[in-house]
Write a structure and sequence with these properties.
- The protein is an alpha/beta fold.
- The protein is 43% helix and 22% strand.
- Strands 3, 4, 5, 6, 9, 10 and 11 form a 7-stranded mixed β-sheet that branches. It has a two-stranded antiparallel sheet with strand order 1-2. Strands 7-8 form a two-stranded parallel ribbon.
- The chain is rod-shaped.
- The mean pLDDT is 88.
Length: 296
């Protein structure tokens, strides 16, 4: 059965009038009559008896009306659920980021966006090398990633890269470390210290090697709470990025003597259409990154 004819028949059956049904459906009366007649030919039985006092449903019409009411109810439910899903889509943003950005960039950006969009719901996922693929697949609406500034610039295939900032690193020491009183610290002066780093061949280890020594790594972790605890208790030192300045405020953070290692922090966006909350989120990320880059 053709659904449009079935719903037109339903309107006529409830109104008991072709003219009233036509007004309710915003159709002409001949169009309504033709649709009901076509439905009767399709099912092979009469559905309505036309009498001087109005229309009366035949027994077959009563049966079909029950089904038409059930179909109409499911369609109404579908509209309600789709509207709710569309509203959920408009207000929920899925963001991915590397751990440091999750602590020092994303919360501040979401807070800014919520000033103008208080109903925003944000799902934040930690990621690393998988962030580009997750944006490309549609799992994430955007992602914040980074690369070592000393390496050739990467342009992930099929994605748009928008640079946010070039982030500098500082030496992170315990507050009572012998070098904590200095305004600047040379990496070579920490050659005998124990170190913590996220990787055995990442930016921190590369910076130590460039300073002329191989760091004694006593911890390999990207867990910021663990890193802060190790340094705070004097068990290790490390290089901390600008994004962790607030999270590591209880430690001694000192500029590095000479060239500082840097990394480029950027946003990855999918091709084509963007989620409506991406634009204000980008504005917030740009503003926060600009403030961090301008900080002494």
């Amino acid at each position: 059965m053709e659904p449009r004819r079935l719903l037109t028949f339903r309107a006529v059956a409830h109104e008991r009038s072709f003219s009233r049904a036509a007004r309710a459906l915003a159709l002409s009366q001949p169009s309504v009559s033709n649709q009901v007649a076509a439905l009767e030919r399709e099912v092979g039985v009469r559905l309505l008896d036309r009498q001087p006092g109005g229309l009366r449903l035949t027994p077959e019409g009563e049966i079909l009306l029950d089904h038409a009411d059930a179909i109409a109810a499911r369609l109404d439910l579908a509209r309600t659920q789709l509207a709710a899903a569309a509203d959920e889509y408009r207000t929920r943003l899925r963001v991915g980021a590397f751990p440091t950005a999750l602590a020092g960039l994303i919360p501040a950006a979401v807070e800014r966006v919520r000033r103008d969009h208080p109903a925003i719901k944000v799902t934040v996922d930690e990621g690393g090398g998988d962030l580009g693929g997750r944006v490309r697949s549609g799992e994430l609406h955007l992602a914040v990633a980074f690369q070592d500034s000393a390496l050739p610039r990467t342009e992930p295939a099929g994605l748009e890269r928008l640079d946010l900032m070039r982030e500098h690193f500082m030496v992170a020491l315990a507050a009572d470390h012998p070098l904590a009183g200095r305004n600047e610290v040379a990496l070579a002066d920490l050659a005998e210290d124990d170190w913590t780093a996220a990787q055995t061949d990442g930016l921190i280890v590369s910076a130590c090697r460039a300073a002329g020594f191989e760091p004694n790594l006593v911890s390999i972790t990207s867990d910021q709470l663990a890193i802060r605890a190790l340094i705070g208790r004097g068990l290790a030192v490390t290089l901390a990025p600008q994004l962790l300045a607030d999270a590591f405020a209880d430690l001694a953070l000192r500029p590095i003597v000479g060239p500082s290692p840097t990394r480029d922090v950027y946003v990855l966006l999918p091709p084509g259409g963007r989620h409506p909350l991406v634009a204000p989120t980008l504005e917030a990320l740009d503003a926060i990154a600009a403030a961090l880059a301008a900080a002494p």
